[in-house]
Amino acid sequence: MPTVELVSFGYLHGDPPAAHLTLDLRHHFRDPHVSPELRYMTAHDAAVRQTVRSTPGIPALIEATADAIVAFTRGPSAGPVRVAVGCAGGRHRAAAFAMALKPALADEGITATITHRDLDKPVVDR
């Protein structure tokens, strides 16, 4: 069985990690950071996960990303597949997206791990 590693990160904390597929959620999906009640929360909080998942376009992107990952795992290489998901700070959109992607992959019979590179870093003032 192929291994899939999901890595969430924030562009404001450094370069994206090396990956087979990199998603940039910064410009097309609303940022929970702009809501004062969500700013200091993270994707570990249900309110953040719900806000991200209810963003128009996110459910379709989760499905499309899962399909793309399935295609990578069926390629001729038996190596692991790494997917990087980025947003501005790495605390909200990217982490919540990765958390939602993992069960979508499980529905396809793929076990994934998640690493949140920047989830626990301080909020970036913008």
Automatic annotation (TrEMBL):
Coiled coil region boundaries: none
GO MF terms held by the record: ATP binding
Classification via InterPro entries: RapZ-like, RapZ_C
Residue ranges constituting the RapZ C-terminal domain according to the UniProt record: 3-119
One Pfam family in the UniProt entry: PapZ_C
Protein name: RapZ C-terminal domain-containing protein
Organism expressing this protein natively: Streptomyces angustmyceticus
